[in-house]
Amino acid sequence: MTDDAQATVAGLRDWFSAERMRRYEESALDPIALYVWNTRMSKAYFEDIAHVEVMLRNFISVRLASDCGREDWFDQADYFGFDYEFRKAVERVKRRIRYAGHDITSDRVIAGLSLDSWRFLLVRKLEPTVWKALRDKANGGIPYYRSRRRKEFEAHVIQLLNMRNRCSHQEPLIQPDADAERGYLDSQWENLLWIARVIDPKAADWIRSQSRVPALRARRP
Predict the structure, then answer these.
(1) Is residue 139 within 8 Å of residue 146, measured between CB atoms?
(2) Taking residues 111-122, what's their average pLDDT?
(3) What is the pLDDT of residues 43-55, one digit of tens each?
(4) Residues 211 and 48 sit within 8 Å (Cβ to Cβ)
(5) Is 176 helix (H, G, I), strand (E, B) or coil?
């Protein structure tokens, strides 16, 4: 590594802000190594979260399309009772598709909806329509989720969304002490696998087998 590629804590403070670096300086003898590790951990978790996010949207989309008999289920606000925020999110996605010069297709709209939008399909207000459609065996159901409790499922997705946001903004995953950090990272890992498992246990096993998270956690500075 050349001298130009070396960094100092003062340099990282200038580049990324003193406030962002403070926790790393308080938590390690080598704040730079810990900051780099945290960044890599964020990316590793983000990879696994991305798999689960795509699984979740496919799971929801297939069942809602089956329930209303239309691939453009996201436009069936009268049928499902979608609120203004979800309808607005769909319109934003359509505008982006048009701006990119593409035709609007169901696949493009579904792929363009954020995890936040999918999370809001799981709210209590939509339990009689959306959650009912997800549970319905005629649409594929949730065969690996025996309790089929909407509130519990929603809570897991909210936790996934919060972790996704932390990772995408490279917020600290480190915690004040080793036990707290271990518990926090374990809970995030178990949460994303829980969602994958209730959709399809084989997918959860595959995500676990491909994940970089365990190896990176073992290399914490």
Answers:
(1) no
(2) 96
(3) 999 999 999 999 9
(4) yes
(5) coil
User: Phi and psi for 36 in degrees, rounded to 5?
Assistant: -65, -45
What are the phi and psi torsion angles at 51 (to 5°)? -60, -45
Q: How far apart are CA 154 and CA 29, in angstroms?
A: 40
CA distance 187 to 3: 40
Dihedral pair phi/psi, residue 175, rounded to 5° = -125, 170
For residues 173-184, one letter each, b for 16 or more C-beta atoms within 10 angstroms of the residue's C-beta and e for the rest, the string is: bbeeeeeebeee
Please give the single-letter amino acid code of residue 125.
K
pTM of the model: 0.90
Q: What is the pLDDT of residues 144-185, one digit of tens each?
A: 999 999 999 999 999 999 999 999 998 999 998 899 999 999
DSSP letter at 23 equals H
| Mean pLDDT on 91-105 | 97
Six-digit token string for 200: 């399809």
Alpha helices in 144-211 (DSSP H): 150-168, 178-199, 201-210
The tokens 């069942």 sit on which residue? Answer: 63
